[in-house]
Amino acid sequence: MERISQWVSSQEIPADLIIRIADSVFPLHKAVMVPKCGYIRRAVTAASQDPAATVELDLSALPGGADAFEKAARYCYGANFEITARNAAALRCAAAFLDMQQHPADGGLARRVDEFLAQAGLRTLSSAVAVLRSCEALLPAAEELGIVRRSADAVALKICNEEMFPTRSPPGWWTAELEALSPASFQRVLKALGCRRAGPEVIATAATAYTELVLADVLAEPRDREEHRAVLESVVAVLPSAADVPLPAAFLCRLLHAAVTTEASAKTCRDLELRVAAVLDQSTAGDLFSVALDGAGERVTNADTVRRVIAAFIERHASAADGRRRRASLSGAEHGSSSALEKVARLVDEVAAEMATEEALPVSKFVGVAGAVPKDARATHDCLYRAVDVYLKAHPALDEIEREKVCSVMDPLRLSHQARLHASQNRRLPLQAVLSALYYDQLKLRSAAADGDGGWVDDGQSAAGRARAQARAEASLARENEALRAELAQMRAYLSGMQMQHSKGSGSRAASPAPAAKKASFLGSVSRTLSRLNPFKGGWAKDTSSIADGRDRRTGSIHVVKPKRRRFSIG
């Protein structure tokens, strides 16, 4: 396809120079092109010794292609052509390729393009972004000529000036201009911002806004998963390091969720997990919980990702604590404990409570998230107890072993009095957890009584207030102990009744002494089984085989022993 029109002033003269660029053909004249193009002059000289012979050249390798060459030919023929921010870089690369850098009249095409860039092309943010974007198709020629560096530096300069001296509203309007850049070009802008010593907040704003705009545009288009993954990985690769510029936690959580949803590479996901862990104490429960959801945001499918983020934070916190401890030991001062771990512990408890409602969530994944934070990081385990209770309520089919595994993430001794009172009446909890909570209450009351007998006085509380508080605690504990003793008595009565029915049905064999021994052995085994629930000896086991099982040894009759009322003990 010939690309020639009225701008060729000597159309009546046959063309003796044919330029081919891809599918485009330019019939030109050596007399016009050779004086202004050093590349064509050398090519014509090498191609033919006959000045009148027609020469054909293939310039498909020309940067900018046929469009850039057409404007360069217009310049040679003296025709009008327009230099804009979108074609300036291509014209500059074409001028360098064709060796059109020096001319006696105006200095050549290269000089004219450089003047345009200095006076107009790089004077505004939008035009500088357009020049930088046009360089993406001209690499490495644009990089070698310094056009990429100049345009990226111009963009960074305009951003810094706008942050210090705003010219438009609303603030941050310039972030929308960056959407047109590729990740590689945006990385050059970030590097230029760093060279100009822009503040971390400026770099963080630019990185956050660019990523949000690009991902929103990409994920909204009906592309395949492979393309989504490639764009996301390229965006994550150009983000500034977490040590230099800490990015917002909410933004990083959204980015991590997108990476997990699009099945990005393990390197990309791990990089984002570490970034989220570095600012986990600044995030909210909603931010971290969003990471665990699927692409539709309806089901919990990424619990393992949340667990790895929490584990990475705990590892970072432990390393930092060791460093503070060493510095404190060298200086002789006490190292202060950071509240970041306590914040994350509360955050994890809230997230675990939200995840607990998912019916398909296995016990191992719930325990992995809820137990990722050390137990001693929490002053109280009330919030964790709430998460455990929600999970047990949403999964009523769990057996005793599974329920004990769920409850293993919390320490009943760290529950508040109100939480222990609720736990003692919670039929969803395993019996071991209930008895442990009641036993701790009893120990506290015994300790308080011992301290009172020893003359201990609390200056911050009046004697009457202490007495009222102790009376209320004792009354509550007495009611709990009475209920527990009543349940144990009912169980003994039920077993005794079953034994009596068994004795009546055995006939004459019931009178012989041998079966009596078997009955006693049977009740003894039941009594020993119940005794294993006794929490007052280590390992939740206490041998009660020597305790009378309710049978009168002299008469052999069976009766129910009424439990004695004791103040500070359970049965």
Alpha plus pi helix count: 23
**Whole-angstrom Rg:** 41 Å
Structural class, from helix and strand content? mainly alpha
Shape: elongated
- Topology pattern, helix = H, strand = E: EEHHEHHHHHHHHHHHHHHHHHHHHH
Strands across the major sheet, in which order?
Answer: 2-1-3
DSSP strand count:
3
Oligomer: single chain
Largest sheet: 3 strands, mixed
What's the average pLDDT? 79
Could you tell me how far the N terminus lies from the C terminus, measured between alpha carbons in angstroms? Answer: 103 Å
Beta content comes to under 5%
Please mark out the parts with pLDDT under 50 across 5 or more consecutive residues, or reply none: 453-461, 508-520, 529-571
Share of helix, binned? 55-70%
What does the model show?
The chain is mainly α and 571 residues long. The chain has helices spanning 30-33, 38-47, 65-77, 88-98, 109-121, 125-134, 141-144, 147-164, 183-195, 200-220, 225-237, 249-261, 266-278, 285-292, 303-331, 340-355, 363-370, 382-394, 400-407, 417-424, 431-453, 463-505, 513-531; strands at residues 17-21, 24-28, 55-58. Strands 2-1-3 form a 3-stranded mixed beta sheet. Strand 1 (17-21) and strand 2 form a beta hairpin. The longest helix has 43 residues, at 463-505. It is elongated.
Topology diagram in text:
Blueprint: E1 17-21, E2 24-28, H1 30-33, H2 38-47, E3 55-58, H3 65-77, H4 88-98, H5 109-121, H6 125-134, H7 141-144, H8 147-164, H9 183-195, H10 200-220, H11 225-237, H12 249-261, H13 266-278, H14 285-292, H15 303-331, H16 340-355, H17 363-370, H18 382-394, H19 400-407, H20 417-424, H21 431-453, H22 463-505, H23 513-531
Parallel strand pairs: 1-3
Antiparallel strand pairs: 1-2
